[in-house]
Write a sequence for this structure.
């Protein structure tokens, strides 16, 4: 049986009031006792322990076996069975870590139980993590510690290497030895330390002075460290030496200022630190390339200026000629408009004449037909006159016979005497009538003869008229054919002149547009010349290297030369490979602190507890 009797009641009561977390188990590893601190620790970890150990119950630990703390109890049982001296270890259960000190209880050389001291390992592990972080920071940064009043307490090797001091040369001295003395006596410096003593950190880039007035620029933060009551007990500065970077930035900034003022002869000859040497080379290459480029631009600008002036003169001449051509085309277009109108009128007149000729041809044809009909009618009249003449001849013979008969009748009446007086009178009357008839017939015959002569003359004239009309008709047909050809030619000429007029009008419009474009080109050439002059003036503001500069002369003071291609800038030199930064000496490892109290001293091969 576990010998609790070995531990007096007074001792147990004292275990209840101490802050150590005490658990006592018998030789069979059954938990027989837990003080109040241990019970409180288990209650605090109850939730997390149950996630990993389902059988764990903080309210039922007394009487339970310690196997509930282990996933592999046999391993721990074997170790405890062989345990002869105090054993320290750290176990992890979920997110919890515990430091354990296991002490076997002996009686007459025989193990009667075990006393286990539990401790929350969080703070120890956290402090260990902080210490490791500080060691890591100390390897790469310069660290120095000050009292709240500014006295130097300590510094790591990085800080001593940066300023060139040994620790004994600066320890106990005031921070003011590291700053400019004018600044050290200023109100700003006093306020600087007042802010730190008030717990407000200061971070910036600072200029500090090391041994033999060595100037160093550091990027640093001054951090007040407070105790548990919030009082500042010291100030720790973490710093990095940025002198080379600042030097590089300032040097390049000065070079850029000269470059901004147009000085392209600037060159960085002094080497930088290895980390920034490529920056210096790039700066030199950039300035050289810019100088070469501007030199080429200056040369090209001169050529452009000459060419622009020639283009401007040519554009002005072309503008004048185009304006003259436009005026001539405008006059030609106006004349063609008039010619087109006249030709169109002529075509209309020719068409009208052709129509009139066709009408005259038709009239001539009708007149010829009428004359032909008149000739036929005159022929018929002539035939009728001959018939009438024959009839008159018969009448004249009848009158002659009647006259003979009347004469005979008068002779016979005379022979008859008185009885034939009446008959003689009738015969006399008949004879007179016959004479008058003969006389009328003679006159009619004479008239008919004259009429026949006139008819023959009329027939002849009508025949001649018919021939003349026939010739007129033929002439009219010929004239009509010519008028038709003239009308067709006039129509084609009018069409052609219309097309020519349209083309000339289009040429006039195009010429007007060309004139406008030439004027715009002339204006653009003038503007380009002004811009070229302005570019020349801008380039003249730069001071170029004599080995590469091509001075841009005033175009008015030199002869024009054919354009030459601008020189191609030399290929940019490749930046040299950045050399590896030499490693800083490793900070001396801090001596491992001795373990006190409940802290575990080592980690053995226990899997879990």
């Amino acid at each position: 049986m576990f010998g609790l009797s070995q531990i007096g009641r007074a001792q147990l009561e004292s275990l209840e009031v101490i802050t150590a977390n005490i658990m006592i188990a018998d030789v069979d590893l059954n938990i027989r006792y837990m003080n109040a601190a241990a019970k409180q620790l288990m209650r605090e970890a109850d939730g997390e322990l149950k996630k990993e150990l389902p059988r764990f119950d903080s309210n039922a630990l007394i009487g339970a076996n310690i196997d509930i703390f282990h996933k592999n109890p046999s391993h721990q049982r074997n170790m405890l069975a062989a345990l002869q001296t105090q054993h320290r270890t750290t176990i992890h259960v979920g997110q919890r870590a515990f430091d354990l000190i296991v002490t076997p209880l002996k009686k007459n050389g025989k193990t009667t139980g075990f006393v286990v001291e539990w401790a929350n390992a969080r703070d120890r592990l956290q402090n260990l993590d902080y210490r490791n972080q500080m060691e890591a920071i100390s390897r790469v940064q310069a660290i120095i510690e000050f009292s709240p009043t500014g006295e130097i307490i300590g510094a790591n090797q990085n800080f001593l290497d940066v300023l060139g001091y040994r620790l004994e040369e600066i320890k106990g001295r005031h921070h003011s030895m590291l700053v400019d003395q004018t600044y050290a006596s200023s109100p700003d410096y006093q306020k600087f330390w007042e802010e730190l003593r008030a717990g407000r950190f200061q971070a910036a880039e600072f200029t500090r002075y090391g041994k033999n007035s060595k100037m160093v620029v550091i990027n640093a933060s001054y951090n007040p460290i407070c105790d548990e009551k919030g009082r500042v007990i010291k100030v720790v500065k973490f710093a990095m030496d940025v002198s080379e970077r600042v030097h590089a930035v300032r040097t390049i900034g000065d070079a850029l200022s000269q470059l901004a003022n147009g000085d392209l002869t600037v060159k960085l000859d002094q080497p930088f630190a290895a980390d920034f040497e490529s920056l210096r080379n790039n700066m030199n290459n950039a300035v050289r390339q810019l100088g070469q480029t501007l030199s080429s631009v200056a040369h090209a600008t001169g050529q452009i200026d000459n060419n622009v002036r020639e283009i401007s003169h040519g554009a002005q001449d072309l503008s004048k000629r185009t304006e003259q051509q436009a005026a001539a085309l405008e006059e030609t277009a106006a004349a063609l408009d008039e010619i087109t109108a006249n030709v169109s009128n002529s075509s209309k007149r020719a068409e009208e004449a052709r129509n009139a000729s066709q009408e005259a041809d038709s009239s001539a044809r009708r007149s010829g037909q009428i004359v032909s009909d008149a000739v036929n009618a005159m022929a018929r009249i002539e035939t009728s006159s001959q018939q009438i003449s024959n009839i008159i001849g018969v009448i004249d013979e009848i009158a002659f016979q009647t006259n003979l008969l009347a004469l005979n009748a008068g002779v016979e009446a005379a022979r008859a005497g008185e009885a034939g007086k009446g008959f003689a009178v009738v015969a006399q009357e008949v004879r007179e009538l016959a004479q008058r008839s003969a006389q009328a017939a003679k006159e009619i015959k004479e008239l008919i003869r004259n009429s026949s002569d006139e008819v023959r003359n009329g027939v002849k004239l009508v025949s001649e008229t018919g021939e003349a009309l026939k010739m007129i008709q033929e002439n009219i047909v010929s004239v009509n054919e010519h008028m038709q050809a003239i009308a067709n030619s006039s129509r084609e000429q009018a069409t052609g002149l219309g097309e020519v007029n349209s083309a000339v009008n289009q040429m006039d419009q195009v010429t007007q547009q060309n004139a406008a474009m030439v004027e715009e080109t002339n204006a653009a050439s003038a503007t380009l010349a002004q811009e070229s002059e302005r570019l020349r003036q801008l380039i003249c503001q730069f001071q170029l290297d004599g080995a590469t500069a091509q001075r841009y002369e005033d175009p008015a003071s030199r002869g024009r030369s054919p354009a030459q291609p601008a020189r191609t800038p030399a290929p940019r030199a490749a930046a040299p490979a950045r050399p590896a930064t030499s490693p800083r000496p490793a900070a001396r490892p801090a001596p491992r602190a001795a373990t006190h109290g409940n802290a575990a001293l080592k980690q053995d091969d226990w899997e879990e507890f």
Remarks:
- The longest strand covers residues 96-107.
- Residues 11 and 17 are 10 Å apart (CA to CA).
- Residues 321-540 form a domain with the Helix Hairpins fold (CATH 1.10.287.950).
- Residues 274-416 form the longest helix (143 residues).
